[in-house]
Structure formats: structure tokens, C-alpha cells
Amino acid sequence: MQHILVAITGASGAVYGLRLVEELLASKCRVTLLLSRSGRQVLAHETGLDWQGSVAQRLRKMREHFTCGEQLMHYDEDDMFAPPASGSASPTAMVVAPCSMGTAGRLAAGISGNLIERAADVALKEGRTLLLVPRETPLSAIHLENLLRLSRAGARIVPAMPAFYQQPQSMAELIDFMVGKILDGLGIEHKLFRRWGDDAS
């Protein structure tokens, strides 16, 4: 069973992280979900989900939301003794969706100020799959340089740029396209969008 670490940081687009977790759980992956404080604030503003409270309270709310049990775990962003902080822990991959430019900048500088940053740093140093889903526009030269540095360090950059060749009819289809691209990067099969060249019927 694959174990995927998903982090939601304080950029717009928390729904990408939520939808990704849904698909990972449906694919029978173990999921550890991390949220920064800003990520929880954006999540509440954009989706109405209030995941505040203690770690135990948050985990209960998450499991209720995703209708799952021990397949989903959660740790506080300040818990540097949690398993994701150690290179001896063995998640298959990590995804930061959405990835704020602040998070990208700290990762590019090798700064591990919280569990999300430390877990991403571990993924890079251990040579594991790390996917970052930046959601910002326009991008400054600083943003671009940080993303390039991360790409050169081994991260895969998957910008939140949905395609339109499949003629999406809803916001959900646009979200699913991006989540499908993330799943492609993880090597997980899905049917979230019609691939270019596939029969439209």
C-alpha cells in the first residue's frame, strides 16, 4: 500500500488538496494530511471547512469529512517529532497542493521551520518523489528562481494550470484535471480526465 504525504499550505486552491486526498483514499493509499496555519485559514475561507482545534479534534473532523478511518493520519505542523520529520520514515511520496510561494521559498533555501517544510526537505534528501503545486499569478523572478532551484533539486513542479482541450463543463472537471496530473506524477491510475487523442465518446 502506497503512503502519500499531502500538505495544504496557505495559497488559494485548497480544493486541489482535498480532492487529491479523496482520490488517494479511493485508490487504497495511506494518507498523512498536513496543514499549515495559513492553509487551515484558506481552507475555511474557500470551502467552509473549519479544521481548527486540537490535533485529535482535527483528525476526527478529517476522517468524518473523507468518511475513512485509520487510513488517514494527521499531525500538527509544529510536531517535529512526528514520523514525517525523519528520514527513517518511509512515505512513498509527498505532494504540497497548493504550495504557497512562501513555502516554495523556504524549501528552496533549505529551511525547515515546520513539519511540512521538514517533510519536504526529507523527501528531497532521500530522493523520494516530491510534487509541488504552486498556485500564484503572476510569478515574480524570485518565485521562478525558487521553483527552478527546487526542480533542479529533484522536486516535480506541477503548476495549477488546468487544460481546456477536454472541453470542461464544470469547475469540478477543471479541478479533476489538475488532480489527475498530480496522480500521473505519483504513478497512480485514474480516470479523472480524457487524455489527448482518446476517443471523446
TrEMBL record:
Q: Which Gene3D superfamilies match?
A: Flavin prenyltransferase-like (3.40.50.1950)
**Coiled coil stretches, renumbered:** none
Answer yes or no on keyword Repressor: no
Query: Which residues of this UniProt protein bind dimethylallyl phosphate?
Result: Y165, K181
Q: Which EC numbers characterise this protein's activity in its record?
A: 2.5.1.129
Annotated catalysed reactions: dimethylallyl phosphate + FMNH2 = prenylated FMNH2 + phosphate
Q: What family does this chain come from, according to its entry?
A: Belongs to the UbiX/PAD1 family.
Functional summary from the UniProt entry: Flavin prenyltransferase that catalyzes the synthesis of the prenylated FMN cofactor (prenyl-FMN) for 4-hydroxy-3-polyprenylbenzoic acid decarboxylase UbiD. The prenyltransferase is metal-independent and links a dimethylallyl moiety from dimethylallyl monophosphate (DMAP) to the flavin N5 and C6 atoms of FMN.
What name does this protein carry? Answer: Flavin prenyltransferase UbiX
Q: What is the lineage of its organism?
A: Bacteria, Pseudomonadati, Thermodesulfobacteriota, Desulfuromonadia, Desulfuromonadales
**Originating gene:** ubiX
